[in-house]
C-alpha cells in the first residue's frame, strides 16, 4: 500500500479526468455512493470499526482512479478555448524544469517565469508567451526579446489542455494514472512526445 499523501485521480462517468483528490475525499465519495467504478490499482486499504453483531471489521479499498457520478462543475474545461490557470509550478512542470534558453535542468528555486515577448513591449502573461528560464538566463535576457538578447528558445511555449493541466498539477503520478492520462492527451501534445522519450 502507498502513502496516505498519494493523490487519487477522479474522473467523470465517461472516464474524463477531472481533478486530483486525497484519500479522505475519495473515502467520502465511496461512502456517499458517488463512486460509479474504480480502475487502476488498489492504493489504500482503510479499516473502520468492528460490527458488534458480526465482529467483522469494515474495510474500504481505495483505487488510484475513481469515476464519480453526479453533476460536475466546469464543463467548459473540455471546450477547445479552455485556458487553465497559469502558475510557476505548472509552468515549470510543462517545461520539465528545463531552462528553455541554456537547456539546464534546475530545481524550482533556481527557475523563473520569462516572458518571451517582454511585458514592457506588449507581451502577455499567458501560456503562449511564457517559458521556464533559469535565474541567470532570465537576468541576462532582461527586458529584451530572445532575438535582441542573442538567445534561442529550445521549445515553443504552448497552452496545455485540461487533461494535460491535470497531469501538470499531479504530484508523484503513479504509472497506472500516467497511462490513463496519456490516453486522453491530444496526439499532437508536446508533453506526449516528451513522456514517450522517458
In short:
By secondary structure, the protein is an alpha+beta fold.
What attributes characterize this protein structure?
198 residues, 4-stranded mixed sheet, 24% strand, two-stranded antiparallel sheet, alpha+beta, 7 helices
Question: Can you describe this structure?
Answer:
The chain has 198 residues and is an alpha+beta fold. Helices cover 25% and strands 24% of the residues. It is built from seven helices and six strands, in the order ββαββαββααααα. A four-stranded mixed sheet has the order 2-1-4-3. A two-stranded antiparallel ribbon has the order 5-6. A hairpin with a 5-residue loop joins strand 1 (8-11) and strand 2. The radius of gyration is 21 Å and the shape is elongated.
Question: Roughly how much helix do the residues carry, as a percent range?
Answer: 25-40%
Radius of gyration: 21 Å
Strand content: 15-25%
Shape: elongated
How is the main sheet built? 4 strands, mixed
> Treating each run of at least 4 consecutive H or I residues as one helix, how many helices?
7
Terminal-residue CA separation? 26 Å
Mean pLDDT: 91
- What is the SS-derived class? alpha+beta
Task: Kindly report the spatial arrangement of strands forming the biggest sheet.
Answer: 2-1-4-3
* Strand and helix order: EEHEEHEEHHHHH
> Care to count the β-strands?
6
Q: In terms of per-residue confidence, which ranges show pLDDT below 50 for 5 or more consecutive residues?
A: none
